UniProtKB/TrEMBL annotation:
UniProt cross-references to SUPFAM superfamilies, sorted A to Z: Calcium ATPase, transduction domain A (SSF81653), Calcium ATPase, transmembrane domain M (SSF81665), HAD-like (SSF56784), Metal cation-transporting ATPase, ATP-binding domain N (SSF81660)
Transmembrane segments: 58-77, 83-102, 246-264, 276-297, 682-703, 709-732, 753-776, 825-846, 858-876
Record membrane topology: Multi-pass membrane protein
Family: Belongs to the cation transport ATPase (P-type) (TC 3.A.3) family. Type IIA subfamily.
UniProt-recorded Gene Ontology molecular function terms: ATP binding; ATP hydrolysis activity; P-type sodium:potassium-exchanging transporter activity
Protein name, UniProt field: HAD-IC family P-type ATPase
Keyword Transferase part of the UniProt annotation: no
Subcellular location: Cell membrane
Length: 883
């Protein structure tokens, strides 16, 4: 029986995988294994095959109606030319749908790849960052706090490793891991010497050897079972296809009505049938959902070029409605380039930056207890020192850098004082504790963390080379407040020597306070203008930080969240808020108006977000740590930083800012708003064009005017004049004032009552031109039925094309707006006219469309009526009748 990796000694696992713990796999081995095992990928849902996409085009209602129409028309009046023409239209429609859907899917795949995770691997003796998808069995991987595990792997070494495996086992508490072999056949949840793909490292770090990748992982097996799930559609797509369905039903009812009234009036059955079919074809905005998908996917691709990865399509829609952005402080609003700035030790305050060149530190180093501060800085510290590229928390990196400036060797200090126990930094206690062996055969506890959290455990203090009773705590509180008010991030340090026999349970008591260090982390220069831009766009920015209120206030002032010199009351201290309780109006208002919350725990972040959401806000949230994950998920838009954020945070987020720039969100919101505007524009455009077609055909039939439009002509219109301008509208840049207006209301539908009335007005203006020219040609010009039909047809083509210019906002001038400046719109118009002229001159197409030669004067009237329709809608628009 072959033993599973968890039941095998690690050396044997490594041997079996033909790998090496120190060297990893060689490049050659990797290439071979990629061929053998494939990439380490599990695709979400089954990607639609090309055949399936093609087949789906045929079960589209428009195609079904067309198929039936061709069949019946052929049955009643066999006309070969018309049948071929209709079949051509079917093929064309199917091809356009197929190409567009394929393009949409391709863009989404490209985006998915961009959002893919990376991992640290040892190959050819070197540690490298590689895309997780290229891991192979036998690879030696390194994981750290906040990482997502990229493949199933057997642990080689661990340090305080605990992993959240909820995605596999459903168990929400983290499990501790070690390396001991286990009995064969134990359940998944008990395999404590393994880590699994898709789980997240809550604490600690580890080295492991990959045993399974891709679909062979535990996650892959689950996915295989549920792989029938298809890519879910976004709410927007759902709304649009609902709209289309609703229109289909409406049209069918309308078509049946026309059919029966015609029949009762004793009209020719073939003509009525054709008219009814024409109507049905006219009304269905078949391009709507796919044009929307393309606009969304294109917007996402455009943003990805600016380093903004939108992971879920629906996020684009939500972006336009976001009105609160919650952000942390360090690294988002500040540079995250920590530097030791001030030291307070034994009652001395020392500016580390100014004193860098002096010999002041040399004097300090002479002091008996100064080395306690150094030891606490190095030992109570998780920075990885083994290679040239030091990795770790920025505040801890700053401590190591400081120690190195004093020409002390951190590595050596760590080697001489091996760690026996560690309580890692915790965002609730805001402390980190280690227990290390010391040189006098005992152990020392080192603690560092938020001053108010630490000081309550200290009863003695280092003072004038002696250990004294800690009586002047208030003075220290003042000092901490003072440093914080300068914008410094403050850490306190303490220690306690214990002998080998002391009980280890009571680590945090009777500590000796060493001193404090203030870190400088300047505000990012580009944040202030961005916050101003958000304000102009009706978006409120809220800082939620775990830091000291004083530090929070100073940074908030620097970035413009608070006005300089504002009262410290403006910062809400987490101790003073009870969000879960029913709040009275005053407190509710206070919370809604606040911009800065300090000493906030991850649980409180979650509560604050829920509070905002309950009060009808759409919340965006920046988060980077593993503790931020619930809040990132809870927020309407979770935003993670690509460089600084943990993998788990990036996984949970909807948006990843690859360049870590707070300012990038401004661009994303701008784009989100623009895309939504465009979707509205082309929905209004397509619906008003379709409405014009329906009402024109219906009215001409009901009024018993001659020569109503034919189904093929309407199909031609839908293919040529509808789709191209609609696509072009989706390519626009967005109005210039887009970031100067408030966000869209969350519950606002795509089609507001105002947009519906605009649609109806534009549709009726086009109808007026078509029915108008029909009546004018019939009664005044006394034209033949074919001429009347052709004039109505060309008027409809032109009026629909011109209708695109109605899509800009009524507040902007007709000659200077987003639509008129969009070169794609002009391209679409020229292309559509070119195709129409082609159809007019190419005899077989002209015959199929029943096009005859018209005189220049007749074309002149077409132009007059089409322009008339644009003029009419513009007059109504400019007098406040439409949007
Ligand atoms: P920000 O909003 O600035 O990003 P945060 O919400 O991430 O801050 P935390 O990292 O939870 O805040 O830090 C809160 C407090 O915990 C800090 O003010 C500091 O006193 C303390 N602290 C931070 N990092 C460490 C650490 N590595 N070890 C010990 N204490 C720490």
């Amino acid at each position: 029986m072959t033993l599973e990796p968890y039941a095998t000694e690690i050396e044997k696992v490594v041997q079996k995988q033909d790998s090496s713990i120190e060297f990893g796999l060689t490049n050659e081995q990797v290439q071979k294994r990629i061929k053998e095992f494939g990439g380490n990928e599990i695709l979400e849902g089954n990607p639609k095959s090309r055949w399936r996409i093609l087949l789906d085009q045929f079960i589209d209602p428009i195609i079904l109606i067309l198929g039936l129409a061709t069949f019946f028309t052929f049955l009643f009046s066999p006309d070969l030319l018309e049948t071929i023409a209709t079949l051509t239209v079917i093929i064309l429609t199917v091809s356009i749908g197929f190409v567009m859907e394929l393009q949409g899917i391709r863009s989404l795949e490209a985006l998915r790849k961009m959002g893919a995770t990376e991992c640290l691997v040892l190959r050819d003796g070197k540690i490298k960052m590689i895309p997780s998808s290229s891991l192979v069995p036998g690879d030696i991987i390194l994981v750290d706090t906040g990482d997502m595990v990229s493949a199933d792997a057997r642990l080689i070494t661990v340090k305080n490793l605990s992993i959240k495996e909820a995605s596999l086992t459903g168990e929400s508490t983290a499990v501790e891991k070690d390396v001991k072999p286990l009995p064969q056949n134990i359940p998944l949840a008990e395999r404590s010497n393994m880590v699994f793909k898709g789980t997240s490292v809550i604490q600690g770090s580890a080295k492991a050897i990959v045993t399974n990748t891709g679909l062979d992982t535990q996650l892959g097996k689950i996915q295989k079972i549920s792989s029938t799930i298809e890519e879910p559609r976004t709410p927007l797509e759902k709304k649009l296809s609902q709209l289309s369905k609703w229109l289909i039903w409406l049209t069918l009812i309308f078509a049946i009505l026309i059919f029966f009234t015609g029949y009762l009036r004793g009209m020719d059955i073939i003509t009525i049938l054709k008219t009814a079919i024409a109507l049905a074809v006219a009304a269905i905005p078949e391009g709507l959902p796919i044009v929307a998908t393309i606009a969304l996917a294109r917007g996402m691709l455009k943003l990805s070029k600016r380093q903004i990865i939108i992971k879920k399509m629906e996020a684009v829609e939500t972006l336009g409605a976001t009105n609160i952005i919650c952000t942390d402080k360090t690294g988002t609003l500040t540079e995250d380039k920590m530097q030791v700035h001030t030291l307070a030790f034994e009652g001395n305050m020392l500016n580390a930056i100014q004193n860098e060149e002096h010999h002041f530190f040399e004097q300090l180093l002479q002091k008996k207890y100064f080395n306690k501060l150094i030891m606490a800085s190095v030992l109570c510290n998780n920075v990885v020192l083994d290679n040239a590229n030091k990795r770790g928390d920025s505040i801890e990196l700053a401590l190591i850098e400081f120690v190195e400036k004093l020409k002390l060797d951190s590595k050596k200090i760590k080697a001489v004082n091996p760690e026996q126990l560690e309580i890692p930094f915790n965002t609730n206690s805001k402390l980190m504790v280690t227990l290390n062996k010391n040189e006098s055969n005992g152990s020392t506890i080192y603690v560092k963390g938020a001053f108010e959290g630490l000081v309550k455990y200290c009863n003695t203090i280092i003072k004038a080379n002696k250990i004294e009773k800690f009586t002047n705590k208030t003075e220290w509180f003042e000092l901490v407040n003072n440093l914080a008010s300068q914008g410094l991030r403050v850490l306190g340090f303490a220690y306690k020597d214990i002998d080998a026999h002391s009980p280890k349970e009571d680590l945090l008591s009777q500590l000796t306070f060493i001193g404090i260090i203030g870190f400088l982390d300047p505000a990012r220069k580009d944040v202030k203008p961005t916050i101003k831009a958000y304000k102009d766009a009706g978006i409120k920015v809220v800082m939620l930080t775990g830091d000291h209120p004083g530090t929070a206030k100073k940074i908030a002032e620097e970035v413009g969240l608070l006005t300089t010199g504002s009262n410290i009351e403006a910062v809400i201290h987490s101790e003073n808020i009870k969000i879960e309780e029913e709040l009275d109006t005053d407190n509710k208002e206070r919370l809604l108006n606040a911009s800065v919350f300090a000493r906030v725990t991850p649980e409180q972040k979650l509560k604050i977000i829920s509070f905002y959401q309950k009060n009808n806000n759409i919340v965006g949230m920046f988060g980077d740590g593993i503790n931020d994950i619930p809040a990132l998920r809870k927020a309407d838009i979770g935003i993670a930083m690509g460089l600084r954020g943990t993998q788990a945070a990036r996984e949970a987020a909807d948006i990843i800012l690859k360049n870590d720039r707070f300012t990038a969100m401004q661009l994303a919101i701008n784009q989100g708003r623009a895309i939504f505007d465009h979707i509205r524009q082309f929905v209004v455009y397509l619906l008003s064009c379709n409405l014009a077609e329906v009402v024109s055909v219906g009215l001409v039939a009901l009024l018993n005017l001659p020569a109503p439009l034919l189904p093929l002509q309407i199909l031609f219109l839908n293919l040529v004049t509808d789709i191209f301008p609609a696509l072009a509208l989706g390519m626009g840049k967005g109005e210039v004032d887009i970031m100067n207006r408030p966000p869209r209301k969350a519950d606002e539908p795509i089609m507001t009552p105002q947009l519906w009335s605009s649609t109806i007005i534009y549709g009726l203006c086009i109808t007026a031109a078509v029915v108008g020219i029909t009546a004018y040609a019939h009664f005044t010009l006394k034209a033949s039925p074919s001429e009347i039909n052709n004039m109505a047809f060309f008027t409809l083509v032109l009026a629909q094309l011109l209708n695109v210019f109605n899509m800009s906002k009524s507040e902007v001038s007709f000659l200077n707006n987003e639509v008129i400046k969009n070169p794609w719109v002009w391209g679409a118009i020229v292309l559509s006219i070119f195709i129409t002229v082609g159809a007019y001159y190419i005899t077989p197409i002209a015959n199929a469309l029943h096009l005859i030669n018209l005189s220049t004067q007749q074309f002149g009237w077409v132009l007059v009526f089409a322009l008339g329709s644009l003029a009419l809608s513009q007059i109504i628009k400019r007098s406040g009748g439409t949007f």
